[in-house]
Design brief:
This protein is an alpha/beta fold. It folds into two domains: 4-125, 2,3-Dihydroxybiphenyl 1,2-Dioxygenase, domain 1 (Roll), CATH 3.10.180; 144-300, Roll (2,3-Dihydroxybiphenyl 1,2-Dioxygenase, domain 1). The chain has six helices and 17 strands. Strands 14-15-16-13-9-12-11-10-17 form a nine-stranded mixed beta sheet. Strands 2-3-4-1-5-8-7-6 form an eight-stranded mixed beta sheet, with helices on one face. A hairpin with a 5-residue loop joins strand 15 (245-250) and strand 16 (256-261). The chain is globular, with a radius of gyration of 18 Å. The two termini are 32 Å apart.
Length: 315
């Protein structure tokens, strides 16, 4: 594993989805979910969070098959992007593109590659910042993208790949007496996790999480989505690992999306990962306010088999 002072990723930028019913998905994310459409061109749209300097946090692309197009992370400089690309090549990682000018809002210097499960990952630097603003009290829209959780059929292999090649560090693990390790929380900065890796039957997206201003805004937003008739999977509650609030919903195509707030920030020099027993209700929800986690809820977040594995998105 790389030393922390050699870590080249800085933060999560955006998550890109391909969707069969494009108009319905766009209405959801730019409507009740509270993102802002900032650009659109022939079946592809870019959605920003008002409190984030990222040009966009979700990209939607009209496609015949539902898939995760890519996950994008930031690096500090173009030189870091180039260095990471060379490291990955030397480590036998399959590059989709070499570092070069990004043809997306904000531009930048970027490249793409496949992770061990065949997901497309992008790393970029020098992306122009979007003019953003402070989210006001009682304004129940996402401040920023919080994290993404991915399903993997070989949890330990995927964890080790991200540690070795991208210098993710383990924050905490959920474990059950029956199933063993079921979820690893992985970080690239002080935030408890930018990515989670979940044990699933196939490679797919588990959920995308959006940070709200605070607990009041998180509850108001959760209530708005519930009143709009979208299916609530789980919540409201508060996890033990990460200490963040959660409410999970299904978007119109069955992707799980989360409102969260108050995710823990760690002292990376002194932090030691915990192993929490996922079967204990106080681990999944400290408050005791969420509906009980069960197999049906878990299966919803397994999502459909991702049809984009080891197939680069067209854009």
């Amino acid at each position: 594993m790389l030393r922390n002072d050699m870590r080249l990723l800085t933060h999560l930028r955006h998550v890109d989805l391909a969707v069969p019913d494009y108009d319905k998905q766009l209405d959801f994310y730019a409507g009740v979910w509270g993102l802002t459409k900032v650009a659109e061109d022939s079946g592809i749209s870019f959605l920003a969070a008002e409190g984030s300097p990222e040009q966009y946090v979700v990209r939607l692309r009209k496609a015949e098959e539902k898939r995760l197009d890519l996950i994008s992370y930031g690096a500090a400089t173009p030189a870091d992007v180039d260095t990471l690309a060379e490291r990955l090549l030397a480590g036998g990682v399959q590059l989709i593109s070499r570092p070069g000018r990004a043809d997306t809002p904000g531009g930048g210097h970027a490249f793409r590659f496949f992770d061990v499960d065949g997901r497309t990952v992008e790393v970029s630097a020098d992306v122009a910042a979007r003019q953003h603003r402070r989210i006001e009290e009682k304004e129940a829209i996402p401040v920023r993208l919080s994290h993404v959780v991915l399903n993997s059929p070989d949890l330990e292999r995927t964890r080790q790949w991200y540690e070795r090649h991208l210098d993710f560090a383990l924050s905490d693990t959920l474990n059950s007496p029956q199933a063993g390790d079921v979820l690893h929380f992985m970080r690239i900065n002080r935030r408890h996790h930018s990515m989670g890796l979940a044990k699933g039957p196939h490679t797919s997206l588990h959920h995308i999480s959006f940070e709200m201003r605070g607990l009041d805004e998180y509850m108001r937003g959760s209530g708005r989505v519930m009143r709009a008739g979208h299916r609530k999977l789980w919540g409201p509650g508060r996890h033990l690992a990460g200490d963040n609030a959660f409410t999970y919903f299904l978007d119109p195509h069955g992707n799980t999306v989360e409102y969260t707030t108050e995710l823990e920030e760690l002292d990376e020099d002194t932090w030691h990962p915990h192993v929490y027993d996922f079967s204990k209700p106080e681990v999944t929800d400290q408050w005791g306010t969420a509906n009980a986690m069960n197999e049906l809820i878990a299966k919803e977040s397994f999502n459909d088999v991702d049809r984009g594995v080891f197939i680069a998105p067209p854009v």
